[in-house]
């Protein structure tokens, strides 16, 4: 997490730095800072809290210059405070850092024993202190930087400016992304290529081990062997439309993005079903779906829940065995990785550190790796053998909504394609399911018209402290995702359990103070969920049922509230049920007055493990 932006220009770069930080604030918004270098040396401004606080600080104490680095922080080591905000600096060098320095404790002890004085609690401050140590030994700037970087364990992307080099910025990366932007008036650096699009017309990604020296007219990159290299440049242009960036009359980005879901599904379907002949137009996959024995699907958070839903589809109607993994577990489990089993990675941002590491691990084990990503020039996209993009557009609310339904759309098409290839369904059934899929956008829009009914339920929940979500079968990942949404944006403690596990422990939590939300779509598991619902109701719990009208009528005597979902093709239930749970979490959060689009402690892109 955290965001780095840097600029060197003929005019003052302060406004570019602030704009860059605003574009990167999805990576962290605990504190922010800038450092400028000119002929009188290094100067910086830092502020705790969101970037507006830094802007305010710059209004009262302006700082202008033609060369500068900037950072927006998501705290890992040390509280979110001005003292811990980046850039960190000594009298000789200022550094903005993304990533985690795993051996910072040892390095700090060593440097302190040599008389170095640290002013923050961060791991990042080790970097300028270490560079200073090597400068004091008489090394040249780039040598001091390289020597310092060689001592670091962990992942990093850094931008550095030196007090006695007012015409250049240094950049280096290992594990965390960094991109260089080329523009007419100067050069830019950002930890996300998208943040360069408003200032540069060409960009290149640095590779792991690269060190770049950036001056106004020239950029020199050396690789991990200290050899001069060129990294391929690409033309970049502002892809984000204004409609992505403004709230279009909605109170929050999250609400706007919930309401965009019909359009997002339509666009994603349009991308993969371009013709009138119903062919699912996927890029050439590096494996034969008909002969596949097994597939791994890996992701984190909401993307992991999308994978869990896909498991029900792929196993249930495509007859393909699927193993779903949380990326942070998969990468360290040392499980046998079979080269003939491909892996599918799911990530909205395409930058999630654990998912990226899991992908690299799978590639090292010679697996074919495909990924479903929303950001098509992200690290995961670039390192995958094949990508299946989602067409969700920029998702700005930290809690994922439209990216999730876009992932489900691609996963459903993938499952359909697999089912046909494996002879599990015929063309008629495929056509029927596809036409049901194309009905989704209008079903979603109709459902959103009844949002006020969900608001009424949220009003009953605004003062609760805990909530239990239950689901069975494909409703389990929906319950998990619903509970995740609730805890993320309302800070209400919410847990989701497989309904069948209730008696194995969690029922001990149930009494009148524990509302229970049961996700129970119609189908063969409904009766079983109804039994669980009665069990919690008889222990005094207030029960909210999410089901179709028939299910609600059946459960009438045991429930306190219900969200009626239209009866649709059972395989497509996840698309609508998830909408109801997103809206419930959203309206609870509005009533609680939390920061919905940027909830505390979270960041949109989890680039550290
Ligand atoms: C939840 C949420 C997170 C992300 C997770 C993975 O609302 O947004 O749980 O789903 O951090 O992120 P991506 O999909 O970018 O890899």
What does this protein look like?
The chain is α/β, with parallel strands linked by helices. It folds into three domains: 2-235, Glutamine Phosphoribosylpyrophosphate, subunit 1, domain 1, CATH 3.60.20; 241-252 and 260-440, Rossmann fold, CATH 3.40.50.10490; 450-609, Rossmann fold (3-Layer(aba) Sandwich). Helix content is 37%, strand content 22%. The protein contains 19 helices and 25 strands. The strands form four sheets. An eight-stranded antiparallel sheet has the order 3-2-4-1-10-9-11-15, with helices on one face. It is globular and about 80 Å long. Fructose -6-phosphate (F6R) binds at residues 300-303, 347-349, 352, 355, 399-400, 484, 488, 606.
Low-confidence stretches: none
The total number of structural domains is: 3
DSSP E strands, number:
25
Structural class: alpha/beta
Determine the CATH superfamily of the largest domain.
Aminohydrolase, N-terminal nucleophile (Ntn) domain
- Here the CATH topology of the largest domain equals Glutamine Phosphoribosylpyrophosphate, subunit 1, domain 1
Mean pLDDT: 94
Going across the major beta sheet, what is the strand order? 3-2-4-1-10-9-11-15
Radius of gyration: 26 Å
Report the CATH C-level class of the largest domain.
Alpha Beta
Proportion of residues in extended strands: 15-25%
Shape: globular
Q: What is the CATH architecture descriptor of the largest domain?
A: 4-Layer Sandwich
Distance between the termini: 9 Å
Ligand types: fructose -6-phosphate
* Number of helical stretches of at least 4 residues: 19
């Amino acid at each position: 997490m955290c965001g780095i932006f840097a600029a060197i220009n003929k005019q003052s770069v302060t406004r570019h730095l602030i704009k860059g930080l605003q574009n990167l604030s999805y990576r962290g918004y605990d504190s922010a800072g800038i450092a400028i270098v000119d002929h009188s040396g290094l100067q910086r401004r830092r502020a705790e809290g969101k970037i507006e606080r830094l802007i305010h600080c710059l209004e009262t104490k302006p700082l202008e210059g033609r060369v500068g680095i900037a950072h927006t922080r998501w705290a890992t080591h040390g509280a979110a405070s001005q003292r811990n905000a980046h850039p960190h600096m000594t009298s000789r060098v200022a550094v903005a850092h993304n990533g985690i320095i795993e051996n910072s404790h040892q390095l700090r002890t060593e440097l302190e024993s040599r008389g170095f004085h640290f002013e923050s609690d961060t791991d990042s401050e080790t970097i300028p202190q270490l560079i200073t140590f090597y400068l004091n030994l008489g090394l040249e700037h780039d040598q001091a930087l390289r020597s310092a970087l060689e001592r670091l364990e962990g992942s990093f992307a850094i931008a550095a400016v030196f007090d006695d080099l007012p015409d250049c910025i240094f950049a280096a990366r290992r594990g965390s992304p960094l991109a260089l932007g080329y523009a007419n008036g100067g050069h830019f650096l950002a930890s996300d290529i998208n943040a360069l699009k408003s200032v540069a017309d060409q960009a290149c990604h640095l590779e792991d081990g690269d060190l770049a020296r950036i001056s106004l007219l020239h950029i020199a990159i050396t690789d991990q062997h200290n050899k001069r290299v060129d990294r391929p440049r690409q033309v970049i242009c502002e892809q984000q439309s204004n409609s992505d960036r403004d709230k279009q009359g909605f109170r929050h980005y999250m609400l706007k993005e919930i309401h965009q879901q019909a359009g997002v599904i339509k666009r994603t379907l349009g991308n993969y079903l371009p013709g009138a002949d119903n062919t699912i137009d996927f890029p050439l996959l590096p494996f034969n779906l008909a002969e596949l024995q097994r597939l791994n699907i890996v992701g984190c958070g909401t993307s992991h829940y999308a994978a869990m839903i896909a498991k029900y589809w792929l196993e249930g109607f495509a007859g393909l065995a699927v193993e779903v993994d949380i990326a942070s577990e998969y990468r360290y489990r040392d499980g046998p990785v079979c080269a003939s089993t491909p892996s599918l990675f799911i990530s909205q941002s395409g930058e999630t550190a654990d998912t990226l590491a899991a992908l690299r691990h799978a590639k090292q084990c010679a697996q074919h790796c495909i990924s479903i990503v929303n950001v098509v020039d992200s690290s995961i996209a670039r390192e995958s053998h094949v990508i299946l993009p989602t067409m969700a557009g920029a998702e700005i609310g930290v809690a994922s909504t439209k990216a999730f339904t876009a992932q489900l759309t691609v996963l459903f098409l993938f499952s359909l394609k697999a089912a046909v290839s494996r002879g599990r369904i015929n063309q008629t059934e495929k056509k029927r399911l596809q036409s049901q899929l194309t009905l989704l956008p209008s079903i979603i829009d109709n459902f959103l018209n009844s949002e006020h009914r969900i608001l009424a339920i949220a009003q009953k929940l605004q003062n609760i402290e805990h909530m239990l979500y239950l689901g069975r079968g494909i409703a389990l990942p929906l319950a998990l995702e619903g509970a995740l949404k609730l805890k993320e944006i309302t800070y209400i403690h919410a847990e989701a359990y497989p309904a069948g596990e209730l008696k194995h422990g969690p029922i001990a939590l149930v009494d009148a103070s524990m509302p229970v939300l049961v996700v129970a779509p119609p189908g063969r598991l409904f009766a079983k969920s109804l039994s669980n619902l009665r069990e919690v109701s008889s222990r005094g719990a207030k029960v909210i049922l999410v089901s179709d009208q028939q299910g609600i009528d059946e459960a009438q005597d045991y429930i306190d509230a219900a969200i009626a979902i239209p009866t649709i093709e059972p395989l497509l239930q996840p698309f609508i049920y998830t909408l109801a749970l997103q809206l419930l979490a959203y309206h609870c959060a509005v009533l609680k007055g939390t920061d919905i689009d940027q909830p505390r402690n979270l960041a949109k892109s989890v680039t550290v493990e």
